[in-house]
From TrEMBL:
Record has Oxidoreductase as a keyword: yes
Protein name: Acyl-[acyl-carrier-protein] desaturase
Reaction equations catalysed: octadecanoyl-[ACP] + 2 reduced [2Fe-2S]-[ferredoxin] + O2 + 2 H(+) = (9Z)-octadecenoyl-[ACP] + 2 oxidized [2Fe-2S]-[ferredoxin] + 2 H2O
GO CC annotation, single: chloroplast stroma
Co-factor requirement: Fe(2+); Fe cation
Species of origin: Tropaeolum majus (Common nasturtium)
Subunit: Homodimer.
Keywords: Chloroplast, Fatty acid biosynthesis, Fatty acid metabolism, Iron, Lipid biosynthesis, Lipid metabolism, Metal-binding, Oxidoreductase, Plastid, Transit peptide
Function summary: Introduction of a cis double bond between carbons of the acyl chain.
Leader sequence residues: none
Keyword Chloroplast: yes
């Protein structure tokens, strides 16, 4: 779900210096060059080489990490309440034919009949969304990179660790349900999809959150809303194509994402209350580097630009667009009342101005890009047996 945003937009912004706030301890540089892509592909059978940039780690100073320890009880009362008890949760089986029932084969046939009415481009977006969900081990890993909130043992009783494990457990149903539905639909090349998932989990992700829970929770607030929007749109499109069961599946997943967004954005709201200056600078920092989508390193063993191609289809169908990106930013700026913050430092005020002015700028550029946009080429997607899909 990438966005065709003008990179110059971000480069030309004058961002406040973060040096007073963030003190990187370690800096690692990737050594891969994009020019050696095909050669590297042969040498690296597990994951394709991707972007080159500096990875900063542990940027949050120790005294700020203490904030999260002091918020343990607050998180217990305010964040864990957004988890649903397992007994009250839906399960994938609730939306799938029961393999032990006599009607199983008939129900599968019905799914396959409905699936015939749905075009390939829709499947490309649904498969991309499913693959994104299936790379869940990466997202749990990402949350456990965050200083002050990580699950130190794998079964830690802290509120933060309980949240992360239970959040993962709730999320695990999303990929599971979509995967089983797509398998039964008979419309997609499961082997190619499974390979893409294996590559993606092997590649990981690089959200640029620097072990910093401020950055991490801003990222997850944004991402949960992005997935809420995209699953909501695939639900709407499934309905338009006459598949109400699939619409229900996408809709029920979107509802989970919304609940998760509420929890993560509440954490960031609390950070704004405790440390407005530090939080607004992190928000600006995160937006300056752009919110990379969780599956940005996606690869199927064939298409070096698979993620860009998938994103282009999602953009064209209106499943997830550059306008959605700007809308999410605008929503979060309003949700966190960033424009109303007072008593900020000079750098804090610059970050505030940057963040508050960014969504309108993205929208203006996007409108211009849309006006200039030409129809993209048709390219084969291995997920739908190399049938060509319009970008
Ligand atoms: Fe999800
Ligand atoms: Fe999610």
């Amino acid at each position: 779900m990438s966005l065709k945003l003008n990179p110059f937009l971000f480069q030309s912004q004058h961002l406040p210096s973060m040096t007073t706030f963030r003190s990187p301890k370690f800096i690692m540089a990737s050594t891969l060059s994009s020019g050696s892509k095909s050669v590297e592909n042969l040498k690296k059978p597990f994951a394709p080489p991707k972007e080159v940039h500096v990875q900063v780690t542990h940027s949050l100073p120790p005294q700020k990490i203490e904030i999260f320890k002091s918020l343990e009880d607050w998180a217990l009362d305010n964040i864990l309440v957004h988890l649903k008890p397992v007994e009250k949760c839906w399960q994938p089986q609730d939306f799938l034919p029961d393999p032990s029932s006599d009607g199983f084969e008939e129900q599968v046939r019905e799914i396959r009949e409905r699936a015939k009415e749905i075009p390939d481009d829709y499947y490309v977006t649904l498969v991309g969304d499913m693959i994104t969900e299936e790379a869940l081990p990466t997202y749990q890993t990402m949350l456990n990179t965050l200083d002050g909130v990580r699950d130190e043992t794998g079964a830690s009783p802290t509120s933060w660790a309980v949240w992360t494990r239970a959040w993962t457990a709730e999320e695990n149903r999303h990929g599971d349900l979509l995967n089983k539905y797509l398998y039964l639909s008979g419309r997609v090349d499961m082997r190619q999809i499974e390979k893409t998932i294996q590559y993606l989990i092997g590649s990981g992700m690089d959200p640029g959150t620097e072990n910093n829970p401020y950055l991490g929770f801003i990222y997850t607030s944004f991402q949960e809303r992005a997935t809420f929007i995209s699953h909501g749109n695939t639900a709407r499109h499934a309905k338009d194509h006459g598949d109400l069961k699939l619409a229900q599946i996408c809709g029920i997943i979107a509802a989970d994402e919304k609940r998760h967004e509420t929890a993560y954005s509440k954490i960031v709201e609390k950070l704004f209350e405790i440390d407005p200056d530090g939080t607004v600078m992190c928000f600006a920092d995160m937006m300056k580097r752009k919110i990379s989508m969780p599956a940005h390193l996606m690869y199927d063993g064939r298409d070096d630009n698979l993620f860009e191609h998938f994103s282009a289809v999602a953009q064209r169908l209106g499943v997830y667009t550059a306008k959605d990106y700007a809308d999410i930013l605008e929503f979060l700026v309003g949700r966190w009342k960033v424009g109303d913050l007072t008593g900020l430092s000079g750098d804090g005020r610059k970050a505030q101005d940057f963040v508050c002015g960014l969504a309108p700028r993205i929208k203006k550029l996007e409108e211009r890009a849309q006006a200039r946009a030409k129809q993209g080429p048709r390219i084969p997607f291995s997920w739908v047996y190399d049938r060509e899909v319009q970008l």
